[in-house]
Design a protein that fits this description.
189 residues, mainly alpha, binds protoporphyrin IX containing FE, transmembrane, Cytochrome b561, transmembrane helix
Length: 189
């Protein structure tokens, strides 16, 4: 129990720290940079659609993590909550989770592709002076790259281990969520 409280505490401390640093930078950027003028072109409308789809796909991907925690399955659940009894026993949810496990790579590739499409249609060069956006681009490419190393069967064991640490945790996902949130309220007039 001690260990699981420590793990959850670490995740909360990480989330609070990233949020706080982002908030400080948000206030700085808000007072220093003018809001870029909104473009209402056909491409930017399509781009917004991809942004929403990307967000939806991210939500769907992390739903698998939530399901794993609810059903007490997987390393993450055992590490976070080693001595807890899963609150739910449902074969339908278990089947859903098995399907999500099988299809994660495809949804992952789709999420990365859709977010990169969103970014290129919104023309990142107009926003690259706001640090949240270049950081988002790096994080998305990073998540995709290490996902590929994890999925690729010829990856050396050491690389797989490292990829698991940096890909299959909350670290990148939490940062993507927080940076996208603050970045978008900065440019939304
Ligand atoms: C380098 C990264 C990014 C850039 C430059 C960017 C840029 C933009 C711009 C210019 C808009 C239109 C804003 C407006 O008109 O108010 C937008 C909308 C949107 N973006 Fe991004 N974006 C980036 C990354 C992301 C990511 C990673 C996500 C998803 C997790 C995302 C989700 C969305 C959503 C959902 C909208 C629609 C918001 C609305 O309709 O009010 N964006 N983005
Ligand atoms: C934005 C995109 C992605 C996100 C947010 C994401 C997130 C995650 C998370 C949270 C896990 C751990 C699952 C858990 O234990 O609950 C995971 C595992 C994994 N991911 Fe991704 N992923 C993405 C893209 C990809 C891509 C593009 C690939 C491969 C090309 C990939 C391959 C894998 C593999 C092989 C695992 C380990 C096995 C498994 O848990 O299924 N992921 N990913």
């Amino acid at each position: 129990m001690q260990q699981s409280i420590k793990n959850i505490r670490n995740i909360l401390i990480y989330t609070a720290s990233v949020s706080l640093i982002s908030l400080v930078y948000f206030i700085y950027a808000y007072s220093s940079y003018p809001v870029p003028e909104e473009r209402e072109t056909f491409l930017s409308e399509v781009g917004e659609f991809f942004g929403k789809t990307g967000l939806g796909l991210l939500g769907f991907i992390y739903l698998r993590t939530v399901l794993k925690l609810m059903l007490g399955q997987g390393k993450l659940a055992q590490r976070l909550l080693p001595d807890y009894q899963p609150p739910v026993h449902s074969s339908a949810l278990e089947q859903l989770l098995a399907w999500m496990n099988r299809t994660h790579v495809y949804f992952g590739i789709a999420a990365i592709a859709v977010m990169l499409l969103h970014i290129s249609l919104m023309d990142i060069s107009r926003y690259s002076h706001i640090l949240f956006f270049p950081a988002l681009l790096v994080l998305i490419v990073w998540q995709g790259l290490f996902g590929m190393f994890l999925a690729w069967r010829y990856s050396p064991a050491e690389l797989k281990k490292f990829s698991h640490v940096v890909h299959a945790q909350f670290i990148t996902g939490i940062a993507i969520g927080i940076f996208a949130f603050f970045g978008h309220i900065l440019i939304d007039d």
